[in-house]
């Protein structure tokens, strides 16, 4: 039986033609569409870096050998001093480009060992054994952050909406960046219905709707903040396209922003959309302006290396922790934030919110 199977396989290999290894343009286009835009941008950037290194080292980038990839990751970790997470991201990009080109991805065993070694070196250097987490933006921090937004300016209106919606939606940076004006529906007397078309846990883009209630405190109400921003855009004739756009120093928004983000030929995709990295930078800058940055030294006192900082993830982490502390059911918070069931990351937030409360198993133990 086994001999017959092997014989049939060998016979099929002998009959392969060049066409069996070719990918039609239409197929390539569909494969490319399946990769989120931000991921594709990151892959291209990391692949260009790998190609440049291979050219300088006299090595072949595609298809690359396992030894070439291992040497490149060593270069990233030792000579360029990249963190282990960044080194791993480069490895993922290299393997993805190989698969997309129809080439066999290089064996990753040696490369993964380099990533693990880099992680251990970081932990030993920083005195840190455990995940490095962003400092959470808690509900009590929001008034100070909102006060740091200049609401008389376009950027201030936008930034206020970014922070408050991101907090209430428990949004990832990529999710906020991907929102369009058509994804936000105002429900009179209730709040917002926000359609998230794709996310980290919804790679097939089935989409989901999350609802945000009106807040009793008007100053930090995400619904009013988003309505103020969309009204500003509508007054300038912008009723379609990305929800959060770039704003230049003159108050121009979206495609009207100059420089390399200016609207070009039709179909070039330049719509002025804020990238995830820009959203993270906005959150970090506002936290610093609000005087929250000083708290990072206290929160990071146990670390001897790089201090933790506020980032785009601070909204998601702080929003979840605030909801749990306010008594929301963990399952409801997890589903609202689009964590996969059984997520270890979310379990950490539950433990953090419980702290020394009644749910701590050592309470009344002795």
What does this structure look like?
The protein is mostly helical. It is built from 15 helices and three strands. β1 and β2 form a beta hairpin. The chain is globular. The chain starts with a helix and ends in a 12-residue tail after the last helix. Residues 263-268 and 296-306 have low confidence and may be disordered.
Derived from helix and strand composition plus strand pairing, the structural class reads mainly alpha
Question: How is the biggest beta sheet arranged?
Answer: 3 strands, antiparallel
Low-pLDDT windows of residues: 263-268, 296-306
Alpha carbon gap, first and last residue = 66 Å
Strand content: under 5%
Can you give the mean pLDDT?
83
Q: Rg from C-alpha positions?
A: 24 Å
| Helix-strand pattern | HHHHHHHHHEEEHHHHHH
**Adjacency order of strands in the biggest sheet:** 1-2-3
For the secondary structure, the number of strands is 3
Count of separate DSSP helical elements: 15
- State the shape: globular
- How much helical structure, as a percent, in the residues? 40-55%
């Amino acid at each position: 039986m086994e001999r017959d199977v092997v014989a049939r396989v060998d016979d099929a290999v002998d009959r392969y033609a060049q066409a069996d290894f070719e990918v039609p343009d239409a197929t390539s286009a569909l494969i490319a569409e399946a990769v989120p835009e931000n991921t594709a941008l990151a892959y291209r950037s990391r692949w260009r870096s790998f190609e440049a290194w291979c050219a300088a080292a006299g090595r072949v980038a595609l298809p690359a050998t396992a030894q070439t990839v291992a040497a490149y990751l060593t270069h990233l970790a030792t000579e360029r001093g990249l963190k282990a997470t960044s080194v791993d991201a480069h490895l993922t990009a290299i393997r993805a480009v190989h698969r997309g080109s129809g080439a066999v991805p290089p064996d990753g065993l040696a490369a993964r060992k380099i990533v693990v070694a880099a992680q251990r070196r970081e932990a030993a250097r920083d005195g840190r054994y455990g995940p490095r987490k962003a400092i959470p933006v808690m509900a009590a921090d929001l008034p100070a952050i909102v006060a740091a937004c200049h609401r008389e300016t376009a950027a201030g209106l936008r930034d206020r909406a970014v922070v408050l919606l991101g907090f209430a939606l428990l949004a990832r940076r990529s999710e906020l960046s991907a929102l369009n004006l058509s994804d936000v529906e105002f429900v009179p007397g209730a709040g917002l219905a926000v359609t998230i078309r794709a996310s980290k846990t919804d790679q097939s883009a089935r989409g989901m709707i999350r609802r945000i209630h009106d807040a009793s405190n008007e100053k930090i109400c995400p619904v009013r903040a988003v309505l103020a921003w969309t009204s500003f855009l509508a007054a300038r004739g912008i009723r379609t396209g990305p929800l959060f756009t770039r704003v230049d120093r003159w108050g121009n928004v979206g495609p009207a922003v100059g420089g390399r983000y200016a609207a070009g030929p039709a179909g070039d995709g330049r719509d002025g959309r804020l990238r995830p990295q820009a959203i993270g930078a906005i959150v970090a800058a506002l936290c610093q302006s609000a005087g929250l940055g000083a708290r990072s030294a206290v929160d990071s006192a146990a670390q001897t290396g790089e201090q933790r900082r506020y980032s785009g993830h601070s909204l998601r982490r702080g929003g979840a922790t605030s909801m749990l502390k306010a008594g929301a059911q963990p399952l409801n918070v997890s589903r609202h934030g689009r964590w996969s069931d059984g997520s270890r990351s979310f379990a950490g937030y539950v433990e953090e919110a419980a702290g020394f409360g009644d749910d701590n198993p050592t309470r009344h133990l002795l």
